[in-house]
Design a protein that fits this description.
It contains 14 helices and eight strands. By secondary structure, the protein is α/β, with parallel strands linked by helices. α3 crosses α5 and α9 runs antiparallel to α10.
C-alpha cells in the first residue's frame, strides 16, 4: 500500500509591482482550489513528478532583485538533502542555517551587498524554506548576475517551475528550459497573464487579477485600483502588508480598508520623497566624452532608484519643457 503524504511548494515572486504580486495571488488561488479540478491535480502532479501526495502546503515569499539571491541562499541552506557532498563542500556548508545562508550567498552573489533587514526576515521565517518539493518563480527575470546561481542549481535536485515575461539571453533560456520542470517565458504577455493561462485559464477572478497586472506593467492604468496598488508597491513596505495585499487579490478584492490605509500612507510618503529629491539634486558636467559634454543630474531620496530617476526626469521637464541631448538622470 502506498503511503500518501503532504508536499511543500514555495512561491517566490517579484514584490515591486502588481504583476508579480498578482501572479502569486493567482497561484495562491489555484492551490486553494486545485483538488476540485482533475486537470489541476494532473498539472501539479506533473510539476512535482509524483502523484503520491494527499495535500499540498503552499509557502509564499516576495523579493526585489537585490535580495533574490539571498532567498535562494535560504532555500539551498534548508534543503541540503538535495545537494551532493561535492556541492556542499563548494558552498562551505557547515549545517548551521545562519552560517550556511551567508556562506552560500557569498558564493552565488560574488560577495555582493547583503541586506540585513531581509536576512532577519528570512531567519525569522526559516522554517518556511525547509523541505521544499517545488519552487515556483514568477516575474523575477534573470539578471546576468544570476548566472552563478544557475550553475549551482544545475547541480542540485531542487525542482523549479519558471513563469516570466523577461527574456534572458538565448543560452540562458536553453539552460533554464533544460533544468526547470516547466519553463514558460513570453515577452508579449505579463507574468500574471502567463500564470493565469497555465494554471487557471477559465477562472474569472484569476482573469481580473491578470488584467490588472498587465494594466500596471504596460503603464496603462485604466483601472483606478491598479494605480493605487502600484503606488503602494512603489515603496518598500512590510512583508505582512505585501502578503495581505496578495491574499486580497486572490479573492478578487481590489479595494479594501487595508489597501485604503496603505495607499494614503504611500501618497504622503511619495510627496515627502519628491520634496527631498528637489532639495537633494546635483548636476555635473563631464567634458571631452565621445559625444561631447554630458550633463549628469543625480537626485537623492528614499525612493527606489528607477522611481527616483523617473521623477527626476519629470521635474526637469517641468522646468525645461524637454530633455536636451546628452542628459543623464540618476535617481538614488
Amino acid at each position: 500500500m502506498i503511503e500518501m503524504t503532504s508536499v511543500k511548494v514555495l512561491s517566490l515572486t517579484h514584490e515591486e509591482d502588481v504583476d508579480g504580486i498578482g501572479a502569486q495571488a493567482i497561484l495562491f488561488r489555484f492551490f486553494k482550489e486545485y483538488k476540485s479540478n482533475t486537470d489541476s491535480v494532473t498539472l501539479i502532479s506533473d510539476l512535482l513528478g509524483t502523484q503520491e501526495f494527499d495535500d499540498i502546503i503552499l509557502e509564499t515569499a516576495r523579493t526585489d532583485y537585490t535580495s533574490y539571491l539571498l532567498y535562494w541562499s535560504a532555500i539551498l541552506a534548508q534543503n541540503l538533502d538535495k545537494l551532493d557532498d561535492e556541492l556542499k563542500k563548494e558552498l562551505d556548508i557547515v549545517k548551521d542555517f545562519d552560517k550556511d545562508i551567508i556562506n552560500i550567498y557569498s558564493k552565488i552573489a560574488n560577495n555582493a551587498y547583503l541586506d540585513k533587514e531581509t536576512l532577519n526576515l528570512i531567519s525569522n521565517n526559516a522554517d518556511k524554506f525547509v523541505n521544499i518539493d517545488l519552487v515556483i518563480l514568477t516575474d523575477l527575470g534573470f539578471n546576468v548576475n544570476f548566472q552563478s546561481l544557475l550553475s549551482v542549481l544545475e547541480k542540485t535536485n531542487i525542482k523549479v517551475a519558471y513563469y516570466d515575461h523577461h527574456e534572458p539571453e538565448e543560452n540562458i533560456q536553453k539552460r533554464l528550459n533544460e533544468f526547470c520542470k516547466n519553463y514558460v517565458v513570453d515577452g508579449v504577455e505579463t507574468s500574471s497573464e502567463i500564470v493565469k493561462e497555465c494554471f487557471m485559464p477559465s477562472d474569472d477572478i484569476a482573469n481580473k487579477i491578470a488584467v490588472r497586472g498587465a494594466d500596471a506593467d504596460f503603464n496603462k492604468y485604466e483601472f483606478v485600483e491598479t494605480k493605487r496598488l502600484q503606488s503602494i508597491l512603489n515603496r518598500k513596505i512590510a512583508d505582512e502588508a505585501l502578503e495581505g495585499i496578495m491574499l486580497l487579490l486572490s479573492e478578487g478584492k481590489f479595494n479594501d480598508s487595508l489597501i485604503d490605509k496603505l495607499y494614503k500612507e504611500s501618497e504622503i510618503w511619495h510627496n515627502e520623497q519628491i520634496e527631498i529629491l528637489k532639495n537633494q539634486t546635483y548636476q555635473y558636467v563631464q567634458e571631452n566624452t565621445t559625444h561631447g559634454s554630458v550633463t549628469i543630474t543625480i537626485g537623492l531620496s528614499g525612493m527606489r532608484p528607477e522611481l527616483a530617476t523617473h521623477h527626476l526626469e519629470r521635474l526637469y521637464k517641468e522646468k525645461h519643457t524637454q530633455i536636451e541631448k546628452n542628459q543623464i538622470f540618476v535617481g538614488i
